[in-house]
Write a structure and sequence with these properties.
about 400 residues; alpha/beta; Leucine-rich repeat, LRR (right-handed beta-alpha superhelix); 8-stranded parallel sheet
């Protein structure tokens, strides 16, 4: 929030607050926050100019969620390791090169270090036995510490856009791993750089209309081309939490057509801002997202509407169609990496389509790819369980 929130904090007007968002060009930590130590659970200091946290930051003992993205930190503050209730740490888009061994609390469930300058992770990662979700895309990591084999609760890992020429077999064989993204590494470079025939459509031929949806990597719009309706995905550019847009485009080219896959039709050329994008088939207005993405509370599980229910026939049809889509991807050597209900469009009856390939990986043939594909199947299993939990008797 604005400087007005900072003024309210300094005036003592936030007494009893459980959440504070401060975006006010801060260069120093506002010590007035310690007045909220008995209640504060969620603190967002993103979008400031901070380089460190005070040594006594652990006075905020009730803190569960901390975001310090888009600041100027060069290391993860060691004091975080002394905070027993801290569940979520987010330091995206800083300049972090180092994670001290003492900086990670063992209570940690969700770690976000996307878009930093990390070349290594500490061995202490292995002590984070409650870690479920870890976002490391856009760093300079060439390997993972062997101790991370002990992160047996880890379910989602974003390791895209790093420097890994190979990955350990234990990574894809972690007992709960279901959402694994490793595109944009030297390991996947050969397949990503292989060019496949693809149609092109000039931007000048498109009449772009309203927004249909948005994800981590881009925004989807309704469009027409010579009176033919279609959908257009325009990438936000640069790095996303899933990785590079070029990795998604490479995967989309490999996948080809399938009735249950929301695939690419043509690559867009000549965008006025130089943005990348592609066209897709436009689904009827009956199609909608099957669920919303995970929340802070659910961590790795999608959020369904409270009244969302399926008949047995609908649940079986959705599972069958997404399973068929996944089989098609795997037959083309593509690991989806993000098989979630929020990436499924459903027509409210018996048709469902799998989309969003931002986390897809074009791995070379071998045992690691086979294991990564099994992670996709575990994610599909979670989807089936969620459908069954919401099936009418």
């Amino acid at each position: 929030m604005s400087a007005a929130t900072l003024a309210a904090l300094r005036a003592g007007e936030l007494t009893g607050a459980t959440r504070v968002d401060l975006k006010a060009g801060l260069t120093e930590f506002p010590r007035e926050l310690f007045d909220l130590a008995d209640t504060l659970e969620f603190l967002d200091l993103s979008g400031n100019d901070l380089t460190n946290l005070p040594a006594d930051f652990a006075r905020l003992q009730r803190l569960k969620i901390l975001f310090c993205s888009n600041n100027r930190f060069t290391h993860l503050p060691e004091v975080l390791g002394r905070m027993p209730n801290l569940l979520i740490i987010g330091f995206r888009a800083n300049q972090i090169t180092d994670i001290p061994e003492q900086a990670l609390p063992q209570s940690l469930r969700w770690l976000i270090l996307t878009d930093n300058h990390l070349t290594r992770l500490p061995d202490a990662m292995g002590a984070c036995t409650r870690l479920q979700k870890c976002a490391l895309a856009g760093n300079r990591l060439a390997s993972l510490p062997a101790t991370m084999a002990g992160c047996t609760q880890l379910e989602l890992l974003r390791l895209s856009a790093n420097a890994c020429a190979e990955l350990p077999q234990w990574l894809a064989e972690l007992p709960r791993m279901a959402w694994l993204a490793v595109g944009g590494n030297p390991l996947t470079a050969e397949r990503e750089q292989t060019r496949h025939p693809a149609d092109e459509v000039p931007w000048s031929e498109l009449q772009v209309g309203g927004q249909l949806g948005a994800g981590a990597s881009g925004v989807v719009y309704r469009a027409t081309q010579q009176e033919r309706e279609l959908a257009v995905k325009i990438f936000k550019g640069g790095l996303t939490s899933d990785g590079w847009s070029r990795s998604e485009i490479a995967a989309a080219q490999v996948i080809g057509d399938h009735p249950q896959v929301i695939g690419m039709r043509a690559i867009i050329s000549g965008h006025p801002q130089g943005a990348e994008g592609f066209t897709m088939p436009l689904l009827s207005g009956d199609f909608r997202r099957l669920a919303g993405p995970p929340s802070f509370e659910t961590c790795t599980r999608d959020v369904y509407a409270d009244n969302q229910r399926f008949t047995r026939e609908q649940a079986a049809a959705i599972a069958h169609r997404i399973g068929a889509a996944l089989a098609h991807l795997h037959a083309h050597g593509v690991v989806h990496g993000d098989v979630y209900a929020h990436n499924v469009l459903w027509d409210g009856q018996d048709d469902a389509r799998l989309g969003d390939f931002g986390a897809a990986s074009l791995l070379p043939p071998g045992t690691f790819r086979d294991a990564a594909m099994r992670c996709d199947l575990r994610a599909l299993g979670h989807l089936v369980v969620e459908l069954n939990q919401r099936t009418l008797p």
